[in-house]
Amino acid sequence: MQIHRQVLENGATLLLLEMHQAPVVSLNICLRVGSRYESDAEAGICHLIEHMLFKGTSRLRPGEVAGRIEASGGDINAYTSFDETVYYCTLSSRHFETGLDILSDAVLNSTFDPEELSREKEVVIEEILRSKDSPSKMLSEALFEKAFPQHNYGRPIIGFKETVQGFSREKIMEFYRSWYVPENMVIVAAGDFKTEQALGLAERIFGGLPAHPSPRVEKIQEAEATAAQAVVLSSPIQGSTMMLGFPTPQLDHTDIPALDILSHMLGEGESSRLELKVKERRGLVNSIYSYVYSPQEPGLFTFGYNLP
Asked: What are phi and psi of 122, to 5 degrees?
């Protein structure tokens, strides 16, 4: 398998992989912006923008972005992380052009309708409030806050009720126009298509976008931990949850593959060692797991379990 990489004149990056085993294509538009690029007053703005890009464009009404993809037998979704925001869909390869056209329309031409924005802010705030009823969610947020006291990784990606309520349409549009520029875009296609066809289509859709420099954010160097730290949270919900976190290097460090393998062996899946020995054989926990969070800057190796 060979990935074709091409950078357009305006800075947008294309990654294309032909795979003809099945008549399916997967499309991603990745933006190099996530919650670590937000100021304290902007906490949650990336996540809210992600919600808004499915709420209507200059030619598609609210609901039609997802509706058109689903009518073609596909599915569409998005997510926001600390480092990036990603919009993606999977559909039959005969609808490849339709899929990229609709996905790009959502990312490039959303209208940020004031009424839709008001409704979506309430949806996000409800999401924030619901997280307060989840002990595991609260504990995870507390763990990252303790592990990253200086870095934005210590702040919830979804933001806070106060910041989300305070976002004006003008502020959202200012952030969107600053970061959603070709230099910050990576367009990825994998599946049953011809590279030449995909190049022509991507050039037609993205090639005419004006080049614009992406904002720059200084890296924050987190102080090295010198001793173990603990956080204890009380909750009226029955049961107990515990999480452990250990500092790890950034994504491109040579130790990351070994840490990924270790996590799979220890706590990912029903045949992992912790699952078999601690849960199945000894019955000490309801669930147990591990994972490595490896962002662009130093991350965490975490373990967690729920007690009966």
From this structure: -65, -35
pLDDT at 63: 92
Return the closest-CA partner of residue 98 out of 142, 58, 59, 68. 68
CB 67 within 8 A of CB 85: no
- The residue type found at 152 is N
Q: Are 239 and 307 in contact (CB under 8 A)?
A: yes
- DSSP letters, 33-59, are --GGGS-GGGTTHHHHHHHHTTS-BSS
One domain for residues 46 and 99? yes
**SS3 of residue 299 by DSSP:** strand
Of the three residues 187, 206, 225, the one that is the final residue of a domain is: 206
Residue 50 is encoded by which pair of tokens? 């992600």
Query: Of 191, 206, 221, which marks where a domain is finished?
Result: 206
Q: Residue 61 CA to chain centroid, in angstroms?
A: 25
Angstrom distances, CA of residue 274 to CA of 137, 140, 196, 283: 21, 20, 48, 11
Task: Tell me: do 107 and 198 sit in the same domain.
Answer: yes
CB within 8 Å of 192: residues ≥ 6 apart: 18, 19, 20, 21, 22, 23, 24, 25, 93
Tell me, what amino acid is at 153? Y
- DSSP letter (8 states) at residue 16: E
Q: What is the pLDDT of residue 237?
A: 73
Domains: count for the chain: 2
pLDDT < 50 positions in the chain:
none
Domain that holds residue 99: 4-206
Q: pLDDT for 18-72, tens place per residue?
A: 999 999 999 999 999 999 999 999 999 999 999 999 999 999 999 999 999 999 9
On the 0-12 / 13-18 / 19+ scale of CB atoms within 10 A, 82 is: buried
